[in-house]
Amino acid sequence: MADLTKTVEIIFGGKNDVAQAIGAINADLSDLSGHVRNASEPFAAMADKVLMAETAVAGLAAAFATLSIKTAGEFAGQFAEISTLIDASGDNLDQFREDILAYGRDSTQSLETVNKAVYAAISAGVDYKDALGTLSQAEKLSVAGKADLDSTLVALVSTLNAYGASTGIAATYADTFFNTVKYGQTTIPELASSLAQVTGIAATAGVPFDELAAAIAALTATGMPTAQAITSI
Fold it and tell me: Can you tell me the distance from the alpha carbon of 116 to that of 190, in angstroms, rounded to the nearest whole number?
C-alpha cells in the first residue's frame, strides 16, 4: 500500500511538475507570441506602406505614360501645321521633325513654345533649314535680355528681313539688340513693338543697324520712351 501510495504520489507529483512546466512553457510561448505579434504589426504596417508606395509609383508611371502619349499627340499636331509651310520630301520632313525634338530637349522653352517659334520663323520667310539656327540666336537673346521668346524672335527676324540680311549673321544682330538694351533704357518687347517703323527706312537710307541701334540706346538712356525715341530718329 505504501508502495502504491508512493507510486501515486510520484505519478501525480510528476504530473504536477509537468503541469507547472507546461504552464511555464505556455506562458513563455504566449509572451513570445505577443512579442512576435508586436514586432509583426509594425512590419505589416511597413509592408502596407511599401505596397501603397509601389501602387503610387505605378500610378505615377501610368500618369507619365499618359502624359507622354498626350505630348506626342500634341507635337504631331503642331508639326503637321509646320509642315504645311515647307516644300520638302518626306525624308527631309522626318529629319526636320527629329531636329526639332533634339532642339527641344536642350531648350529653355517648352516643346510647344519651340514649335510655335519655328512656325513663326518660317512664316516670316526664314528657310526651314535655317529656322532652328535662327531660333537658337533668338532664344539666347531672350534669356540674356530677360524677354519672352516670341517678341525676341519677331524683333530679330523682322530686322533681318528689313535689312535683307541672311540668317547666317543673326548672331551679330542679336548682339546689337542686347547692347541696345544694355546701354539704353529699353527692353526687347518694346523694341519689337516699334522698331519695324524705322528699320525699313534706315535700311533704304543706308544706315547700318548697329548705328540705328546706338541712336536708340542713346535716346532711351536719357529717359525718352522707346517708341518716342524710334519715331524721332
Answer: 21
**Is 125 within a domain?**
yes
89/57 Cα distance (integer angstroms) = 43
CB burial string 175-209: b at 16+ within 10 A, e below: bbbbebbeebbbbbbbbbbbbbebbeebbeeebeb
Domain of 164, in residue numbers: 81-232
Domain count, the chain: 1
Any idea which residue has 510655335 for its cell?
Answer: 116
Q: What is the pLDDT along the chain (233 residues), one digit of tens a residue?
A: 444 444 334 434 444 444 454 454 445 445 544 544 444 445 445 444 444 444 444 544 454 455 466 677 788 899 999 999 999 888 999 999 999 999 999 999 999 999 999 999 999 999 999 999 999 999 999 999 999 999 999 999 999 999 999 999 999 999 999 999 999 999 999 999 999 999 999 999 999 999 999 999 999 999 999 999 999 98
CB burial class (10 A; 0-12, 13-18, 19+) of residue 174?
Answer: buried
| Alpha-carbon span 187 to 151, nearest angstrom | 10
Residue 31 lies in a domain: no
Dihedral over alpha carbons 146, 150, 154, 156 (to 10 degrees): 40
Residue 145 lies in a domain: yes
